[in-house]
């Protein structure tokens, strides 16, 4: 019995030691779990930051394509303040369609976390397309026909109706060559002032270069030209390079898609756009007057909004001329309107390829991060 206190003390000591060891093991295990969870959280945070940096790189590429559509895809490297860095690059290809070519740019963006321990790669395709969806084949395109009092002088597209088949006017209603004063001819004849002496069609005679009463004429001319329904005209307006209230400030330096919300009167001798940097001028719900010697390079489109019934006129005075295309979604010529246009293949080509008319869209379903 004399050894009982010593035995109890030893038992207590062993118990305390075991409990201390157990608590130590539990503490070490808990610390390990916390450390492991912290590593997981850090990895997740790095992954999120790397992915955000890659997304930033992708958006940077879209910004470059918008500002400089001819970007060759050369790698762009940027450091984001406190948010890592990215490298983005692009590879181009051309997809041919019946009416035009579409440029596809495959963008690869690699994002790196601020500590450099994580990286994410995102790939997406961007589509570059011209705001002009269908290049016109005729220098005059009118929905509603040309009224019998209208006057015009038009230089045909020599291959508008097929190889070697000229096309001057395209409309869904009649062009009456027995009234008014209208002449169509070749481009060189018009430039030489010999359109009336060497015509295709003239007063009293309508040749095959005038395609009128065409049942295949588009029911929505805006949609045909720009792939935007006329009921959604505000979308095209929002896509314009500039929106103005009149044509007063337009000149040779003007470029791109110009939306005019007011009257369009072009001063005598004024040149709008150029052969290498043409314009598309859309005039809404107003008359258009181009005075003596005024010249527009590109497309002039008289657009009457849906529901509007007011007649509007195109009047080109004293040799005023459009090098390219004159289009209207309503009839013209009812108020002795005069319109002169010469088909210019080089100008029309620029409306397809010039950077000012190129827009960028994301290709649906092309995004991937694997």
Mind explaining what this structure looks like?
The protein is of the alpha/beta class and 370 residues long. The chain has helices at 4-67, 187-191, 221-226, 233-238, 345-353; strands at 76-80, 84-96, 101-112, 119-130, 140-142, 151-155, 169-171, 181-185, 210-211, 242-244, 256-260, 264-266, 271-272, 279-284, 288-290, 295-303, 314-316, 321-328, 338-342, 358-362. Strands 5, 6, 7, 8, 9, 10, 11, 13, 14, 16, 18 and 19 form a twelve-stranded parallel β-sheet that branches. It has a five-stranded antiparallel β-sheet with strand order 1-2-3-4-20. It has a three-stranded parallel β-sheet with strand order 12-15-17, with no helix packed on it. The chain is rod-shaped and about 140 Å long. The model has no long low-confidence stretch (mean pLDDT 88).
Topology:
Elements: H1 4-67, E1 76-80, E2 84-96, E3 101-112, E4 119-130, E5 140-142, E6 151-155, E7 169-171, E8 181-185, H2 187-191, E9 210-211, H3 221-226, H4 233-238, E10 242-244, E11 256-260, E12 264-266, E13 271-272, E14 279-284, E15 288-290, E16 295-303, E17 314-316, E18 321-328, E19 338-342, H5 345-353, E20 358-362
Parallel strand pairs: 5-7, 5-18, 6-8, 6-19, 7-9, 10-11, 11-14, 12-15, 13-16, 14-16, 15-17, 16-18, 18-19
Antiparallel strand pairs: 1-2, 2-3, 3-4, 4-20
